[in-house]
Specification:
By secondary structure, the protein is of the alpha/beta class. It contains 12 helices and 20 strands. The strands form 5 sheets. The protein has a 9-stranded mixed beta sheet. Strands 19-18-17-20 form a 4-stranded mixed beta sheet. Strand 7 and strand 8 form a beta hairpin. The model has no long low-confidence stretch (mean pLDDT 94). The protein binds adenosine-5'-diphosphate (ADP) and zinc ion.
Length: 437
């Protein structure tokens, strides 16, 4: 039997004009639903002087007020609820990377559409009934495990609900049960690859063929690294708890940007300073409006993720708009001696220079000036190099980083395995400057 290419073909390949019409129809209804049921958002709209009758379609989207993370903290826990709580069947929560956790609530229909999105992502990387999908994202409040688990069931794949952690058992099951698709954070995928090598396995000895990695930023360099160590194709998946979870967008066989599930989520790019919508192709902050969600239907939610959208046709046949890999969220951006630096820029230099994604950035302050140190693991085969050689390598890596960032860190090459591995989202920045303020 020929493999299916899409999970919901009619929707995934719908002509763009039709998608826009559908979005307009849904938007009008959704704004009314929210206005009638969420007093907090009604107040925001009233303050802006906009009524549901002013929204005739997506061309009026810009008239609506934004929702920000601070609004969600203010309305915690149930202030954004748009249906009776008795209609809700699930709570999930953010991983709390940037402060107090935000909770999200779902009706059964909300769960269904979220799992459909994850199923689209799985089919897009070639998963079907014959596949064994190992879900090594954390299960529990975090959306990673639940989302891909549900998606895998919908596709009909055999699902291995591993959750994260217990790396040896992960690898044993992967081999014994013949996992063909791995879902986890990219940092955990890199760790699994490293551990597999240590156990003496070469990539051709494992049946894995694809991986769906997301929930944190990762670079193209890291993708190539993971593809080589695991012998797979590595695909990106994006999502956030506030909008549903993983699967808001996902990569197809082209591995060139993630298709946003546009029938459910209306995307915009805005100038993060002024809030003005930007034309397609310009870099800015990603904003989402939930078109179908019932319980927690955020309108114009500011993600703080920085990226670019494109409508260029994709050879996979999907018509949904694509977003580039977010280079990090505006919260991840470090300002070091006045220069803007993203961890992803550092990661791409390290891997290009032959190091791994095991690194740590430490920021401090001495005499009112920022200190900037990057700790990087030496590849095992270079561990025995002379002090002189290692010092020379530190210097040359520092120079490569300076060229990329416009500001030079002090590089410390440390023995293999001395930087903590991550089973979920990696924490790579330790900023101690605030302690000295
Ligand atoms: P938290 O905000 O606590 O981390 P979530 O677990 O919901 O909560 O994470 C959502 C965020 O994770 C996104 O807003 C984005 O910053 C990041 N993220 C998710 N997937 C990706 C991806 N594929 N690439 C880069 N960043 C991602
Ligand atoms: Zn595509």
């Amino acid at each position: 039997m020929e493999k299916r290419k899409y999970y919901q073909q009619a929707i995934e390949t719908m002509p763009v004009e039709e998608i826009k019409r559908l979005q307009s129809e849904k938007l009008v209804k959704q704004v009314k639903h929210v206005y009638e049921h969420v007093p907090y958002y009604r107040d925001l709209m009233d303050k802006k002087g906009v009524k549901p009758e002013d929204i005739h379609g997506i061309e009026d989207l810009h008239k609506l007020p934004f929702i920000e993370k601070s609004d969600l903290r203010e309305t915690y826990p149930y202030g954004m609820l748009a249906v009776p709580l008795s209609e809700c069947v699930r709570i999930q929560s953010t991983s709390g990377t940037t402060g107090r956790r935000v909770i999200a609530y779902y009706t059964q229909k909300d769960i269904d559409l979220w799992e459909d999105c994850c199923a689209r992502a799985l089919v897009a990387v070639g998963a079907d009934k014959d596949d064994v999908v190992q879900v090594s994202y954390g299960y529990g409040l975090f959306t990673g495990g639940a989302g891909l688990n549900g998606g895998s069931h919908k596709v009909g794949s055999l699902t291995l609900p591993m959750s994260s952690g217990n790396t040896e058992r992960q690898l044993q099951f992967m081999i014994d049960l013949g996992a063909t698709v791995l879902c986890c954070t990219p940092s955990y995928a890199a760790y699994l690859g490293e551990s597999l090598k240590e156990m003496g396995y070469t990539p051709d000895k494992i049946p894995l063929k694809a991986g769906i990695f997301g929930a944190e930023p990762w670079t193209q360099e890291m993708r190539r690294d993971i593809e080589a160590t695991l012998g797979i194709k590595a695909y990106d998946i994006y999502g956030l708890t506030e909008i549903s979870g993983p699967g808001v967008s996902y990569e197809c066989s082209e591995q060139n940007g993630m298709h946003i599930c546009e029938d459910h989520f209306l995307a915009e790019i805005i100038n993060p300073e002024t809030g003005e919508p930007l034309p397609e192709g310009e870099k800015g902050e990603l904003v989402f409006t939930c078109l179908d969600k019932e319980a927690f239907p955020l309108l114009r939610y500011r993600t703080r993720d920085i990226c670019v959208l494109t409508r260029k046709p994709c050879s996979c046949g999907r018509t949904h708009i694509r977003m580039a890999k977010p280079m990090g969220r505006s919260d991840d951006m470090m300002i070091i001696r006045g220069v803007n630096v993203f961890p992803s820029q550092i990661e791409s230099v390290l891997i290009t220079e032959g190091f791994t994604s095991n690194y740590e950035i430490r920021l401090g302050r001495v005499n009112n000036s920022d200190t900037f140190d990057v700790y990087v693991e030496l590849p095992p085969e270079q561990f025995d190099d002379s002090v002189k050689t290692i010092t020379a390598k530190e210097k040359s890596l520092a120079a490569a980083l300076r060229t990329m960032l416009g500001i030079g860190p002090t590089v410390h090459l440390v023995p293999p395995k001395t930087i903590a591995r991550s089973e979920g989202k990696a924490k790579r920045v330790i900023d101690e400057r605030k302690l000295h303020d």
